[in-house]
């Protein structure tokens, strides 16, 4: 049975902008995908997927907290199944999905395009879900109804999700990672 989703949260991996997180070469010992790297980080933090959920999707990712990741090349990969409760934002996991962009605050054009595609796709499936950044879930310490930068517990995802949506889902100024030719 599908669980109700009323919130979709965008995160960043807090890794160097533009760096892929792929390690080694495919098919060789030691090769690791970004999803596997993040799964390892989440295992170290004590995250665990429900063993009953593992056979359904990505059984080798035993700890990953996100439902989707967007690699620097724009590839969208799954972590947890959308029916599985995530481990990406304490207090909000029960009714949310988590999307993680590899990087910190500047993302490749391919990542921005994939995020826009994923947002359109998920908005069709979950039309009543609010879209927020992880930082937007910080407590409103001064109780003025606005979570302001000084109240953020994290800066994740490194950009204003509401501004991105209002701007037509185009890359935000100062948040586009572009390789600089030597």
TrEMBL record:
Database matches in InterPro entries: Amidase/PGRP_sf, Amidase_domain, EF_Hand_1_Ca_BS
Ranges for domain N-acetylmuramoyl-L-alanine amidase: 1-158
Biological process, per Gene Ontology: peptidoglycan catabolic process
Domain of life: Bacteria
Molecular function in Gene Ontology: N-acetylmuramoyl-L-alanine amidase activity
Entries under Pfam families matching the protein: Amidase_2 (PF01510)
Full protein name: N-acetylmuramoyl-L-alanine amidase
